[in-house]
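Purpose: get a first structural picture of the assembly so the mutagenesis plan has something to point at.
Setup: two entries, given in the order below. No constraints added.
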Amino acid sequence: MEFRDYYQILGVEKAATAPQVKASYRKLARKFHPDVSKEPDAARRMTEVNEAYAVLSDPEKRAAYDQIGSGRQAGEQFQPPPDWGAGFEYSGAGPGAGPGASQGTDYSEFFSSLFGTASGARGPQQQRGGDHHAKIAIELVDAYNGATRQLTLRSAAPDESGRVAVRERNLTVRVPKGVTEGQFIRLAGQGSPGFGEGPAGDLYLEVVIAADPRYRLEGRDVHQSVPVTPWEAALGGAIEVQTPGGRVQVKIPPGSQAGRKLRLKGRGIPGGTPGDLYLGLNVVLPPATTDKARELYATMARELAFDPRQGTGAES
Amino acid sequence: MTDLEIVSGVLLDDVALTLDELACACSVRPDWIVDRVREGLLAGRTVPAAEWRFTSAELIRTQRLVYLEVHMDANREVAALAADLIEEVQRLRKMLAVVGPPPSRDAS
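Result (structure tokens, whole complex):
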């Protein structure tokens, strides 16, 4: 693993005071905040900045990092020594809820091997292990039907020789049917181990539904665009549509215009109060690439007194 | 070393968090949350604190307030204002995603 220069990442001197570290962090948090940043790699940079701040803002972690990082350069190969961690006790938490962060599990192997992934506790001393937070990405169809997803979580623990090693564990998580964007799945006992006889903390997984160009979400409501022919829109009729919940037959009312929305009640994301599915009609014209097609368009032009610009202010 | 476990979780909102659970999940003391609920900075509650239950959205908001106050040095009112604005931006972005972007102005 490569050594990380947290001072370089935060852009501060090694002698920087705590207020200077915080000031630099705040400046970088504004620059790389994923909600506002135009930088192409903002999310990755924000994670690096959060990680550096988690160490340099905590006097205990910073002292330990300074001791081990003395004389090292960023990018140089690095292994924590066997007695790493002796004499240090960590009680603080990093900026776990910071922009782009998902406590612990997003941090680098370098961070995990030095400090573990526990979120710690600023509150009273507790025997219970810390809670962890991570994100779990699912497809929209998984929200309809439920799914299982495999996660790889990293944490640091001493091996038989006392050397701190990064331990990976795979969790196969059952995602319940009816989850929506931003909801949490709570996995009891999957956080940090407890101290002494204390129980383990919990793992909170924030649900992220992967973007799908076919669908747009609004809470439990789902919006989908459906291509229809001009005659289906004009004359009405029944069409079959593939929706996230399966194939359905939909009646197109006669005289429908492009952009008209049909609501299929209760066919959004399932739940106690299920969402609705909105089908936006997208009228697609057949291409005029054959003589027959051109003839039909010409007939319509002659026979139909139709000016779509009339009354719009765009008429000639 | 790799272990394989199969686990099922509970969906927050089906089973909401107690005050102590929320405090633990956000690494703060329960009274930190009580203060902000009483001041209307977190969702208002009329029942006794022991009966409070918190949803996914309130967990996210609490984490955001902790972050803004602790790491960005915002006072609690400014943190709540920033959280309100972030939530509003997210709501508007979702709405924009549903209705589509505004038409281009540079069409000739």
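The mean pLDDT of chain B is 85.
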